Prior knowledge:
The mean pLDDT is 83. The protein is mainly α. Helices cover 76% and strands 0% of the residues.
Amino acid sequence: MNTRQICFRRGVRDGLPIALGYFAVAFTLGVAAKNAGFSAVQAMVESLTNNASAGEYAVFSLVSAGAGYLEVAVMTLVANARYLLMSCALSQKLAPETSLLHRMLLAFDVTDEIFGISIAYPGRLEPWYTYGAVSVALPGWGLGTWFGVIVGSVLPLRLVSALSVGLYGMFLAVIIPPAKKDRVVLALVLISFAASFLASRWSLLAGVPSGVKTILLTVVIALTAAVLFPVREGEAA
């Protein structure tokens, strides 16, 4: 078995919990899609090409309200803008000789969870590891949306809402291990939580979309951490 196969299988293994979480969370997307007039197949295709909960909710909500194509495109861009920062950070984990094709394929499905396990990959990121994770996570998202359109509307609302909590628990499972190993990471995680909460309550930012708030906080906190706690090239994980 060559290195690519080993990395791909490892990615599949690490991506399975993400796929299960995506499948559960996508139920709520399926309900929103049905309310917007999407068929099960249309909703699934939308999820397979736009794997982002906030972005998809924006799409379904705007379509339901009768918004135009331009408005939908702009709102989706704003809601998903944080992934631009994640892609830039992830590119630093790749070997310099990584081809443009690999970089573009990796950028296609940069989600919070896929980013989390990819950035935590020891040493330089092997693209085939992320491909393995995406190969199971993305279908889980698409099928969850499809299933949500089919049966989601007949499930109790409390049950549908409860399913979405699983994704937050899964994301905590991604960030807690490195936080336990490094006090700097732990401090930054806690500061990020506090800053995010304060930003959501600050009246001056009341009209700022959540995606923009995330970008601003990410840039400020990451830049401060990079200046105060720089990581030497030889120490990069």
